[in-house]
Write a structure and sequence with these properties.
single chain; 219 residues; alpha/beta; 7-stranded mixed β-sheet; two-stranded antiparallel sheet; 24% helix; globular; binds S-adenosyl-L-homocysteine
Length: 219
């Protein structure tokens, strides 16, 4: 984790350029773009990445994981159609960047991470007071959070080998799940809409490349 947190004019300028790029790439949800414009992405990376934090790229974080590419974060968040006060379950806290993007949009975020070293960083989260609407959990995302169900939305930020049945159970009827599902070399982004009878409809979008969603916890 970095030691200094300064959001300079230069960082803000680079962030505005990133937002313009995301717009050019087809992101249209203004609330998503505003959220990305508001959050200093470089705070979520080692200081070594300061100059390149606003390139539209994924970067390595601890425990061999990655902070997702801004386009991917924007794309998934847009598909999720986030409303203020939505209860959102996120699988794969990672750097906490995606959680913060959701929280900035006014969602109530429940995020699960299976890597202890990454989970432990939440105690030093620089935005602890600004985003009391994020709750952090150490656990296996395949299990979801039965005690906090049902959720309005579920977002998986790792490559799921299949649609996790327990997460579908914990979704409200009418709720949405956005997830990248394994499709050979890459993953197909899916949006599932849960119906009253517990079944769902499926929409398929672009292909992406995520780190794998793994079972169990890693202490
Ligand atoms: N949303 C993150 C993306 C991190 S990459 C961000 O904005 O930075 C995906 C993360 O999912 C990794 O940190 C990985 O450890 C985690 N992950 C993989 N399988 C998981 C599981 N079953 N439960 C919880 N987290 C998982």
């Amino acid at each position: 984790m970095r030691k200094q947190y300064e959001d300079s004019y230069q960082h803000k300028g680079l962030r505005r350029q990133l937002v313009n790029l995301l717009r050019e790439k087809g992101i249209t949800d203004e609330a998503v773009l505003e959220s990305i414009n508001a959050i200093p992405r470089h705070f979520f990376l080692d200081s070594a990445f300061d100059k390149i934090a606003y390139e539209d790229r994924a970067f390595p974080i601890e425990a061999g994981q990655t902070i997702s590419q801004p386009y991917t974060v924007a794309y998934q968040t847009q598909l999720l159609r986030v409303n203020k006060m939505d209860k959102v379950l996120e699988i794969g806290t990672g750097s906490m960047y995606q959680s913060t993007v959701l929280a900035e949009m006014g969602a109530r975020v429940f995020t699960i991470e299976r890597q202890k070293t990454l989970y432990d960083q939440h105690s030093k989260f620089v935005f602890r007071n600004k985003y009391p609407n994020i709750r952090f959990f150490f656990g296996d995302g395949f299990e979801g959070l039965p005690a906090f169900q049902p959720f309005d939305k579920v977002l998986i930020t790792a490559a799921a080998p299949f649609i996790p049945p327990k997460l579908m159970e914990q979704l409200k009827p009418g709720g949405l799940m956005v997830l990248p599902v394994d499709d050979g070399d890459a993953q197909r982004m899916l949006r599932l809409t849960k119906k009253e009878d517990g079944t769902w409809t499926e929409e398929a979008f672009e292909q992406f490349s995520f780190v794998p969603m793994l079972t169990g916890k890693n202490r």
